[in-house]
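Shape matters. Shown next:

___
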Amino acid sequence: MSTIGVLPTTEQQASDFERGALFADLKYRAHEHLLSRIEELGAEFGRWSQASIAQFVLLELDSFIRLHSIAVNEQEALIVARALTRELTGLGPLQDLLEDPQVEDILINGHENIYVSRGGMLQRVSVRFKDDEHVLRIVRRILAPIGRRLDESSPMVDARLPDGGRINVIIEPLAIDGPSVSIRKFRKDPLTPSELVQLGTFNEDICRILEMAVQSRCNILVSGGTSSGKTSLLNALANFIPESERIVTIEDTAELSLNHNHVVRLESRPGGFDGTGMVNIRDLLRNSLRMRPDRIIVGEVRSGEVLDLLQAMNTGHDGSMGTIHASSPRECLYRAEMLAGFAGFQGSEVSLRRQIANAVDFIVQIGRLSNGRRRLLSLTEVTGMTDNMISMQELYRYEPSIGPNGQEQDHWVSLGISPHSSKLQNWWRMQQQTHRNA
């Protein structure tokens, strides 16, 4: 198949070859040759299976290498053949990354700089595109089935992928150094609370409190930064909702995947080029109140919908939940207050704080540590108003300890305070009685 004998190719050699100029040049030239052959085949090619296309690529590449006396061994030729097959049947350089279950995020900063997140840690990968036009060709192939436009007149796209993931793209003239692509992948089987305990996100004591808080219809906000695990935690908390209840989820980009029998999933819609046809989170939230929900879950509170969510929580829709971007429980309340102000809240500052204090029962703060691990940092209860300020009490706090081997170990400190919420009083008394009897 090549002009030299079959030589063993190690994983490192294969990686070096894929980064080299020979690989890029051969792939480009062979791709042009394949496109010419596909044009000759016409409609017949479109009826071929993926296996048939892979065999076609192997045969054509073998002929091309022999014809042009290109010095590659058989293993290197196979690497090029796989790359060309991905170009014709899949998503080119992105295909393997999208199929890798360990990859959480794929970040493209121009055609030469590709990073992935594994276990919460970013790392650069050897995957390369030929040029920025190659990136755009693959991105448009991703966007085509969902009918989203990407060109100079519409240079930004944020969309949900058919597999539940999310893609954000920004191109020239807004992105100066080439196309910027961010792909967030989601697990096909969302994490359950017990799996989060096994992963060390929180301990069993916290899990029991969260379970009873959800089952007792407490209103909960999950607070944290970008990529801290807010959506995964919110998804896990929904596992505690009784099967007999009707849930309405509202999101900008549908990411929640609830393991529940009765779920109505709503997703906002961006406006057209002239701004018409837009349906935002606030519109959906207002409409959901007419849909007889037992629970309302808002994927992310980021604008005026905070007012409608607070009103829903205060007017009989107990057990509602949502996420919010904030760095601490106190900042979470400040942000809710700020968003309500931006949305045109007409009352006084004190009345707004009273409404927040009456609506929210618990704030669950989650964060991503420097080592990439995602941990529940604080479980805090909102207890009411004191001197015109919202008062809170922290039930659990994350304080890692140093083990005998010098490594950091997860540890949550219980502050020994019983929940104040009347919704949990009966449950807490039962817990205390159980501990005394034990």
